[in-house]
């Protein structure tokens, strides 16, 4: 400890006995440590909750994409007028694109994946 640091501590201590001053410093340190531990536990719990929600949403998006693919396959097997067929296929393509964009955003929030890593 430098002389300047010692003088600053002595100034802060004032008329309080050294042992009591050290006790107060340690007590403050322990209280701050407990606050930090509680905050870290809260952050950890919040992260677990968000991760679970992201996994559930990601799974649901996968099921939606699967259903859209099934609709697209069914459309390809049926004889529909070209105009209706194109409209339905455009809707399927747009839905798949929206699902892919949402998956990308979720992955970026969770760990920085790129669009290429999801395909």
Report the sheet-strand fraction.
under 5%
Counting structural domains, the number is 1
Content-based structural category: mainly alpha
- Kindly, what is the distance between the CA atoms of the first and last residues, rounded to a whole number of angstroms? 58 Å
List the helices and strands and how they pair.
Elements: H1 3-13, H2 18-77, H3 82-111, H4 115-118
Describe this structure in words.
It is a single chain. The chain is mainly alpha-helical and 119 residues long. 88% of the residues lie in helices and 0% in strands. It has one domain (3-118). It has helices spanning 3-13, 18-77, 82-111, 115-118. It is rod-shaped.
Name some characteristics of this structure.
0% strand, 119 residues, mainly alpha, rod-shaped
Would you kindly provide a brief summary of this structure?
The chain has 119 residues and is mainly alpha-helical. The chain has helices at 3-13, 18-77, 82-111, 115-118.
């Amino acid at each position: 400890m430098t002389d300047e640091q010692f003088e600053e501590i002595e100034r802060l201590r004032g008329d309080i006995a050294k042992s009591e001053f050290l006790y107060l410093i340690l007590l403050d340190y322990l209280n701050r440590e407990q606050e930090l531990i509680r905050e870290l536990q809260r952050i950890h719990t919040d992260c677990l909750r968000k991760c679970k929600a992201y996994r559930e949403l990601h799974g649901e998006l996968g099921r939606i994409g699967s259903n859209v693919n099934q609709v697209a396959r069914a459309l390809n097997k049926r004889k529909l007028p070209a105009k209706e067929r194109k409209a339905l296929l455009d809707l399927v393509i747009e839905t798949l694109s929206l699902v892919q964009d949402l998956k990308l955003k979720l992955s970026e929030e969770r760990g920085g994946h790129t669009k290429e890593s999801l395909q």
